[in-house]
């Protein structure tokens, strides 16, 4: 009975999703795949494969499985290339910006570090130049934001970026990009909030000046 | 280095020191020669020479330096072996 | 078809990035189309030296991984029309790219530009191998210190082993006052030891620190000695015969011949 479960075929809107369970060695997986396809050859002929899921498999192993399915069983795999990435971009816009899941990160985010989260992000610390915060929702920095912040990374134009000191190298909200002006510029010392207004990133204080 | 002291009261120009040190380091770097390599050379030399002469193994010294080539005065790396001989072996052995 | 030149040194902190930024700017001043590539993945800096850090959207790794097209990742310089920067990724490491991919990337850029300058990371590991992969020529930067010259020597050997023959030497941060006192190796000393051709000498200059602070290459500063030195080097790369500046030469400096030690490697 475990044999049957090594590989699972699932139908989705985009095509077949082939799930490989962990804890099997590659040879067994290959044998199971061939067994399964042998039994139902005509059924899968020409079927569109959307993705091959299996965290345990390397890219090469996935390629090998794909080539078995395309050459021996005439299945169509053209649309399945970079599994993880193509799935992400098709995900729906994150809607939880008023109320939704949030990640809290404590400490300074330094150059080269990257926080990427499918929700709101709150940083209890500074974000240094060269660091990157990417969130599908809002970004709030309880410190200085000097690195790159990308709010609404999958397209939510209502998301915003707020920081006690907002001086980012670059600010992106949904697909709008803004950068710090060249040369010297004056920077107010109070907390500020950035959001999209008329397709531009607009920065304004969110507290009345004291 | 004594003559340098003559020119400069306390120490010689430090650039000369730098240059000398650098040259020596580079001789080693360029020949890619490790202390282990020198030990191997040393062991083999002992092996071969012992057939002919009795040598003082503890006093044997093998090192890399540089020397001027006679033909054009170009500096060349040189392998120098200093082998103290205790006594010559009987020639009939060969 | 352009020419790809890698700027390398072995040792860190001798001025590879500053040299790349200034030669890139200098060559574009002369009217050439130039691309500068930051190959120091994970520790990028060429962007800040050129003052373009806030324009980066895509980087070298994105291009290699096919996330974006090459033209999308190229950042146009603030002043010069023909000057573009391909920044390194900051959140990845050197292994994100292979020498094969770098070779392809440099070749693609050579189609579009007259000169492609590659800023090599310090060290002799993967990053170095990537940076030199697509290069036609190499410039070795060193300073008049034992450690830097020793590393330069090692690099020259590695370059020759990778079929990058006859690299050119840039001596950076020389201090004439110290050379005169005999407390710093002079140009002849270094040429003598490294036995490669000299491309130029850049004096130690406060203007470099100031211009880096501002993100504007010193080559734009007409009054700076270092700026003048970089302008001269750029012209020499372009094939002009520019005499060495007075401070660059010194009375006894005549030989540029490879001779020392009689060792090619």
Task: Please sum up the structure shown.
The complex is a heterotrimer of chains A (210), B (94) and C (265). By secondary structure, chain A is α/β, with parallel strands linked by helices.
What does this structure look like?
The complex is a heterotrimer of chains A (210), B (94) and C (265). With 210 residues, chain A is α/β, with parallel strands linked by helices. Chain A folds into two domains: 2-87, Transcription Regulator spoIIAA (2-Layer Sandwich); 102-205, Pectate Lyase C-like (3 Solenoid), CATH 2.160.20.70. Chain A is built from five helices and 14 strands. In chain A, a hairpin with a 2-residue loop joins strand 13 (192-197) and strand 14. The relative contact order of chain A is 0.09. Mean pLDDT of chain A is 83; it is low at 82-90. Chain B is 41% helix and 24% strand. In chain B, a hairpin with a 6-residue loop joins strand 2 and strand 3 (75-82). The N and C termini of chain B lie far apart (47 Å). Chain C has a single domain (3-262), classed as P-loop containing nucleotide triphosphate hydrolases (Rossmann fold, 3-Layer(aba) Sandwich). Chains B and C meet through helix 2 and strand 3 of B and helix 7 of C.
Topology:
The complex is a heterotrimer of chains A (210), B (94) and C (265).
Chain A: H1 2-5, E1 7-11, E2 16-20, H2 26-39, H3 41-44, E3 49-53, H4 59-71, H5 83-89, E4 102-106, E5 114-117, E6 120-124, E7 132-135, E8 139-145, E9 148-151, E10 161-166, E11 170-173, E12 176-179, E13 192-197, E14 200-205
Parallel strand pairs in A: 2-3, 4-6, 5-7, 6-8, 7-9, 8-10, 9-11
Antiparallel strand pairs in A: 1-2, 10-13, 11-12, 13-14
Helix pairs in contact in A: 2-4
Chain B: H1 2-7, H2 14-31, H3 35-49, E1 53-55, E2 61-68, E3 75-82, E4 85-88
Antiparallel strand pairs in B: 1-4, 2-3
Chain C: E1 3-8, H1 16-29, E2 34-38, H2 46-49, H3 60-65, H4 70-73, E3 75-76, E4 83-86, H5 99-112, E5 115-119, H6 126-133, E6 137-142, H7 146-161, E7 168-174, H8 176-181, H9 187-194, E8 197-203, H10 206-214, H11 225-237
Parallel strand pairs in C: 1-5, 1-6, 2-4, 2-5, 6-7, 7-8
Antiparallel strand pairs in C: 3-4
Domain Septum formation inhibitor MinC N-terminal (chain A): 7-70
Protein name (chain A): Probable septum site-determining protein MinC
Subunit structure (chain A): Interacts with MinD and FtsZ.
